[in-house]
């Protein structure tokens, strides 16, 4: 698969490294050159330096050929804009965006964009842990 990753912070670099390791074609876009240092030395994809909110940068990454775009920046508004452009302008079939604040989740969903919310996922894991603890106390 050809995957474009927006953002090369902790989340973006981990996804990029794993997809690259699995043999996928990966392009990472970030506007801070130092962010690419987060990638492992085994990363075999390409890096595009620039603002992912600019159409020309998305074209440079050949987003129109992407099977998937994963938008991983911590900025919900940027993620919404880039995800919407990937979905509507570049017709990318699989677009997933990181969402820090769950309030705009309905907006993403109405546009056909899947979301992942690390804060929500953390809460779910904490709740699972307390349920597991309670069960162990009963036994």
Rg, nearest Å = 17 Å
Major sheet: arrangement of strands = 3-2-1-4-5-6
Please give the alpha-carbon distance between the first and last residues.
47 Å
Percent of sequence in beta strands: 15-25%
CATH architectural arrangement: 3-Layer(aba) Sandwich
- Count the beta strands: 6
Overall SS class:
alpha/beta
CATH structural class? Alpha Beta
What would you give as the CATH superfamily? NAD(P)-binding Rossmann-like Domain
Describe the 3D structure.
The protein has helices at 10-21, 55-60, 76-88, 105-110, 118-138, and strands at 2-6, 25-30, 46-49, 68-71, 94-98, 114-116. The radius of gyration is 17 Å and the shape is globular. It has a six-stranded parallel sheet, with helices on both faces. It starts with a strand and ends with a helix. Helix 4 links the parallel strand 5 and strand 6 (114-116). It has a single domain, classed as Rossmann fold (3-Layer(aba) Sandwich). It is an alpha/beta fold.
Fold topology:
Layout: E1 2-6, H1 10-21, E2 25-30, E3 46-49, H2 55-60, E4 68-71, H3 76-88, E5 94-98, H4 105-110, E6 114-116, H5 118-138
Parallel strand pairs: 1-2, 1-4, 2-3, 4-5, 5-6
Put the structure in a nutshell.
This protein is 42% helix and 19% strand. It is an alpha/beta fold and 139 residues long.
Structure keywords:
alpha/beta; 139 residues; 6 strands; globular
């Amino acid at each position: 698969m050809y995957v474009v990753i927006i953002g090369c912070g902790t989340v973006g670099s981990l996804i990029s490294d794993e997809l690259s390791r699995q043999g996928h074609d990966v392009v990472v876009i970030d506007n801070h050159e130092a962010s690419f240092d987060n990638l492992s030395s085994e990363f075999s994809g390409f890096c595009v330096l620039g603002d992912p909110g600019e159409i020309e940068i998305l074209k440079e990454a050949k987003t129109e050929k992407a099977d998937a775009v994963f938008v991983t920046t911590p900025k919900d508004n940027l993620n919404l804009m880039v995800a919407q452009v990937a979905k509507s302008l570049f017709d990318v079939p699989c677009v997933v965006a990181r969402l820090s604040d769950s309030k705009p989740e309905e907006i993403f969903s109405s546009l056909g964009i899947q979301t992942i919310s690390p804060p929500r996922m953390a809460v779910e894991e904490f709740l699972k842990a307390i349920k597991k603890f309670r069960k162990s106390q009963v036994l």
